[in-house]
Amino acid sequence: MPLLRVVDRDGIEHEVEAKAGLKVMETLRELEYGVAAICGGMCSCATCHVYVDPDWLERLPAAMSDERELLAELAHHERNSRLSCQIEFTKDLAGLKVTIAPDE
Ligand code: FES
Known about the structure:
The chain is of the alpha+beta class. The protein is 16% helix and 20% strand.
């Protein structure tokens, strides 16, 4: 299975298996150090906020307006912020590196 690289809130990097076709959030919420994903992927809670490694940012489909609007409201919003529930993991994204954003 393709790997996803996840940096937790303590700065420790983990490699986890991620299934193609699932949202990145669906892999992250299973991890002890992952995301809460309270709204279940409805793009309304932002508790699945991650920072995408700059090397990968351009390889992801662009964020839709509802994602961009929600991200813009966050205190910890950065240029490479994304909502992991809006990123579909594919084989082409094997090795994708994301950092779990701080709690709001
Ligand atoms: S899980 Fe709520 S916005 Fe992503």
